[in-house]
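Budget justification note: compute hours in this period were largely spent on complex prediction jobs such as the one shown. Inputs:
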Amino acid sequence: MRNGYIVHFRFIIRMKLALIMTTCAVMNVSASVYSQQKVSLDVQKTKLSKVLKLIEEQSDYYFVYNSTNENLNKEVSVNVNNTKVLDVLAKLFNKSGLVYSVSKEGLVVVSQQQQVSVSGSVTDDKGNPLAGASVRVKGTAVGRATDINGRFSIEASTGNTLIVSFAGYASQEVAVTKDGDIKIILIEDNRMLNEVVVTALGMKKEKRSLGYSVTQVAGESLTTARENNVMNSLVGKVAGLDISSTSGGAGAASNVTIRGVSSISQSNQPLYVINGIPMESKPVGVGNANSRGNSGSQWDNAPDLGDAISNINPDDIESISVLKGAAASALYGSRAKAGVILITTKSGKGNSIDFNSNYVAEKIIDQTNWQTVYGQGANGEKPADGKAAAQVGGSSWGAKLDGSPVVQFDGVSRPYSYQSGNLGRFYRTGSTWTNTLALNKTFEGGSIRFSGTDVKNKSVVPNSGLDRQSFNLVGLFEPLKRLTIDARYNMILEQVKNRPMVSDMSGNANFNAMFLPTSVNVDDLKPWKKENGFELPFTTGNTYATNPWFAAYEFQNNTKRDRSIASLTAKYTLENGLFIQGRAGRDAYNDQYRNVLPTGTAYYEYGKINEQQTKFADINADILVGKAFSFGDYTVTPNIGASYRNTKMSQLTNSGTDFIIPFVYNILNAKNKSVNYLESESETQSVYGTAEFAYKDVFYLTGSLRSDWYSTLATPGYDNKLNSVYPSVSGSFIFSEYFKPSWLSYGKLRAGFAQVGQATDPYQTLLNYNFRGENLNGAPLGSINNRNIPNTSLKASIANELEIGAELRLLNDRVNLDLTWYNKKSKNEIIFNTTTPATGYAAAVLNSGEMQNKGFEALLSATIVKTENFKWISSLNGSYNDNKIISLADGLKDQLVATSRSNVGFIMNKVGMSAFQVMAYDNKYDKDGNIVNLADGSPDRGELKAYGSAMNKWFAGWNNEFNYKNFNLSFLIDGKWGGKLFSATDYYGYIWGLHQNTVERREEIGRAAAKYYENTANNVSKNFVNSADFIKFRQLIIGYTFPTAMFNNKIKSLNVSVVGRNLFTLMRKTDNIDPESSYNATFPGLELGGVPAIRTFGANLSVKF
Amino acid sequence: MIKPIISTLALGLLCVMGSCTKDFEKINTDPISYGKETWDPNYTLSSSQLFYTGSFDFAYDTWRGNLIYSATMMQGLSTVISYWAGDKYLLNEGYTAAYWGNGTVGAYIEQVRNIQDVIVNTKGKPELNNLYQVARIWRAVIFARLTDLYGDVPYSEAGVGFYEKIYKPKFDKQQDIYTDLLKEVDEAVAALKTDGDRVFGDVIYKGNIDKWKRFGNSFLLRLAMRLVKVDETKAKQYATKAVANTLTNNSENAYILHDESGSRVTQNRNSQVLLGDGGQECYYVKWSNTFIDFLKKNNDPRLGLVAVTKLYLKDDVKAQNPDYVSNPAVQKGMPNGKDLSSDPKYKISSDPSFTTFPDYSSPNPKMIKRNGVTFILTYAETELLRAEAAQRWGIGGSAAEHYKNGLKASITYLNQYDAELVVSDVLAESFAVANPYDASKGLEQINTQYWAHTITMLDFYETWANWRRTGFPKLTPVNYPGNATSGTIPRRFPYPSTEEAINGENFKAAAAAVPGGDNLAGRVWWDK
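Corresponding output:
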């Protein structure tokens, strides 16, 4: 950089154009012909005024200035060859103490730079003040935030440019003149290219300063085409974010992983931070206290009890920031290993009443392709009578369907013919109706927002649904100058009726509707009760195969959640810019779960009841102090902080069996009762500091250091190290400030390195004992309490991540490209290593695994067409993640993660392979490589082999948005590739003779065909390993925004949209199931007995008064 | 709300000084469980004893291992229920693996885990000597059944995952296991002290050390007799030791009395299944005709006690008919290997014996009470084994005398199920006199009675093991399509396939070493 020409000067007085001492927009020169003029100069220590003269000689530019200004006598050296005049001027006047402006005609007015105090206000296009917008002097890293009423004041010099930016809005640049008050209006920009994003600890930062990748999504994109679990709305929208919903029906959890599996055995779910208050959202399965939900085990037969994030109302979300890498999330230390998702909820904006109403209808997509040749029966025979029909129950190993009358399980004779469409008959058309009313009020010194939302969901599963009411109150106040108070209270009441059972068959409507024999019509299983109210079983030979209607209408799996999330943030900024911020929040919920196995259930007719109450409270508090210091072009911003977190949970379960008076479902009516109680607590204390160095607004370097102390590592009697220290460093360089070819409008390189970690759940360190809830004739029954072999010397796991990226804007910002490469390696993984029960335990807590995730992410977005009336924006995001288990614990080469109910499919981690390998049995081969068969000709079982990871490798989402006048249309297509899925549905398709493949040799084998195919299924289970690749037409929105003039401006805005989600599957490789099926959010790669995939369509009305 | 901010500030400062984490140990101690210091291993013993009768979770292993397989293979019970694979020698891997279990249920996680912990926590503690010795005997009881069912199994490295950090235990040879079991029981019996600590957690003998000594010796005799085919020297050596002090009468029978109030966890395992809690077992599971015919042929007084007809009248009604019929004359067993299909070769209704299901004999409801007993080891078994030892080696008295004692006891003990199942001593005596011991077919006589007796105990695991050891009684196998043994009675449970995924190398080595292969027809070491 050659910018240090401090020189002397002589004055040139050019009076003839003195009238042009007016202000001109600095950047407004692009249209001028002059702008293309070029000059060549080679001068050493020459007065600035002389240089200007030389330029005048070579070009049509001419200069006006006050010849008495000493600054024009400063000597400069400049050597340029055929360079644009404007670029030469920028160099010449840099740090000269002078400012200049260029008119269209080529007149350059040079004047003395002046320090002024600029104040102004920032509003949106509707005049609502934007609180917390960033106002920064271009070329420096010094900035200020607007106050609650959107006002700011900042020291600047004339000729400076202010950059005003706000999350979710396009940035704006404003020239500083002598004039005091500036009004800045920002326009919303939902292209996910936001200039300002929310980063760790809730700090809003300009994207240019970040040395890592952050993707921010605006709240609007979550509400028009909505999902009950808000995270599902992000599918396909963010590179590097893998979201899979589970087949658990209404209120089910979602599996969210960022940049691949981040932990070998512990939670892979990101940390959610809502308005600065962390919230962990572990679905049942890993470390979740709720023992009653589906935990993904082989024998599991329980409903999906959902996760914490699904309670959050999308209407209240202002924006979601996804901090993907360790560098971004390093400030969250031990909780950041799986990435962090920051959610900012809406606060009061202007004075308005917003109303949003959304109605969608839901229909299942039947993806089965069962055989239609053979009917219910066994041994190739039709059932001889009703009793026999009931005995063979679920089996489709009968005779060829011939339409002849056959007595069925209920003694009624019906034609022996194929009954297509059972799933369609069993599942009803569901619906979700969401209404949100929000009131906004802004007043001097504050704003307030209150919103209430009601969600009424009728699930596709009969007799099941979800109701949720949420209330959100947000107040922002400035009681004293420079003291802001942000107080939020969110109350959520959620009632889910009959969360459907998933996985195994008992009490599971999904399972039993799915595997109904070919010749049985599901409607014939109605009424599902006998006269005495007992279940009418369609398969007495297997009473666990519950009549699906009975399962849906008589079983109860009801949950009630009463949750409140409160937070208070106070920030005081001193005159000199030093700020102190304190924040405290509490997320607490009471859950009630009631599970009733009704009187008359075929597999346990006396009935059972469980009443479970869970209390959870998570308290987080933190404090942060910081200030920016400027030294010329350099800015240093140190922050230090500390945080405290305490999580407590208690759970009381009353179980009862055998109702004294049948059909009366309360715990007191149970003949045998037992009680269980558990409690847990954990605490983390942290201190941290960050320092950001900036050179102008061109180069940024940020370092941070955090130390966490965990209670979960503390072991009585052992002096374990309780803390870990997590460093990070990241930098960004806006190279386009120095190298800017005509096609490039912005270019940035970034790199970051950080260390993050993960501790573990409480009570993993010591062996302890407990009593069962029951006793034997008064004798207490004691036992070891630990399921896992405890580890007395636990240490936190550590992940190191390096990421490098680039952001480019091309062709006048029409095309944007964001690329990231990362490499993340973790060690000291805390592994819950499944052990043989012969060890005496289900698993061992080990602490030495290593894992790696490498990958890249790309986001390409382009404004393909942009005319006055028509705009087409297309954006494509893609990512690739390659995971590898480098080592497990000493001497261990593999780890069992989960077992399919079929018992012949497994998910394992294996050293040297990517995590979650889908394992199945291969054929047995003799030494010549021929397949070995059993005596009956069915294949013998060979080796248990790995067939690939259950985690997808490639992800892509393609979003298109068209705007024509007041119409808009958008659609999203997304796909995932490279993952495997073990289909227990296909397995049972073999066992019960429903699978197409079981048709071929039936006649030939005859009576033993069922056994033959059962052997085939059990011995060569690789047949059930499916590729989980898919491409789906995920979302379509067609909307119309009414011109406000239509309503005499009485209505501020009115938008109506038609929406559809999961409309078509464009590609899949699974035979009978949806490729995204899974019965548990924690263990991908296994599926069985879940709710089929759902297609939704509906309408959205959004109105603002 | 301001308070947390202030306390955070304070905490932050404290942390820097490193003092606020000192309550972390307390926080990370489960507040509602017990540490080693406060725990008494007697309570753990209770669990390991109860779970020997079957899993806490709906008789998981009992249902599959004892009833579905052992009971039907031994033709004690018979059924047409399609998933009762054992009746037809079909392989259901999930069922044969059930006794071994998984991370939640089964012998290792319920029995071995607990008993091993008792042993670790009592070993070398003189004040807990008796508890330690009882635990050693009990561990032998637990492992004997495991190894009898599967052969080579993890033994020396089993259940010590926490203490020894062994995560992939090796499979010990059954020969080595038996050698150690014999040594353990022998030593433990010798070390029991009548004036020592009271084993209050013992739910079998309530801490009666004399009974434990006799139990230990009787069990030692059972272990020893298992080896007659493969190591007669050792069998004789230990049998000789054991017969010095075995159980002396039915009042010393080892059994666990169940409790209805604890639901599945404490109710009688066999009863839960046979009462139809999980299906239609109550209606479709019957005494096998092999067993009933045996009782009938000998005019056995047990017939009128253990068998009833018309107990369940409809397949979907679980209420018992109070007017069930226990008249011995009408009792009728159901043949094994039948089904409900329409193929006349297999369908039960084509069998000449068939009239209606309620006409087939069910176990007497007094034997299958929810709060009934599970027998573990009885005087009658011991006397029969002593008869065999006397017959083989001339030790411990006269074979005829022991046989007679055994036969009488096997009739009179039934009142321990229920006071109403009573046969007078006089009648038992006259029956025994009418069916005297005949040394020329002594082993067959003894072991056929052992078969019948263990069937009435509903301890079909033991029935199967003793049958495999002796070959008596001579049973006629069924031959059902798709059976896994070419129509022979299975002789071993294959290893759980899940072991391949969690203990792969040890599993593969053990599976490869099974004579006859890792399947239902393979054999354990002592079953040459």
